[in-house]
Amino acid sequence: MEYFCRLKIEAAKRLIRQGGQNFTEIAHALGFSTIHYFSRRFKAVTGMTPTEYASSVKLRAEEDVPV
Q1: What average pLDDT does the structure give for the chain?
Q2: Angle between helices 50-64 and 35-46 (to 10 degrees)
Q3: Among 4, 30, 52, 66, who pairs with 48 as Cys (CB 3.0-4.6 Å)?
Q4: 63: left (phi over 0), alpha (psi -120 to 50) or beta
Q5: Which tens digits make up the pLDDT trace of 34-65?
Q6: Nearest 5 degrees, angle CA 52-CA 55-CA 59?
């Protein structure tokens, strides 16, 4: 079970980086029963919430853009 959860979280990370869906849509698409359960599992696997992860991805993207 843990293996499949980790696969879903990796898929969620890809979807967050793509930026086309909100967290509720991502949670639903990946089969999580609620956004709260998705957030708890995401944090357990990655050490950060989906919001924190999205912010870190955005920050890294901004740092990589040449001025």
Answers
A1: 92
A2: 60
A3: 52
A4: alpha
A5: 999 999 999 999 999 999 999 998 888 777 66
A6: 140
The dihedrals phi and psi of 29, each to the nearest 5 degrees, come to: -60, -30
**Closest alpha carbon to 35 in 24, 44, 50, 48:** 24
* Paired tokens of 1: 């079970």
Q: Count other C-beta atoms under 10 Å from residue 27's C-beta.
A: 24
The band of 66, judged by pLDDT with boundaries at 50, 70 and 90, is low
Please state the pTM of the whole predicted model.
0.85
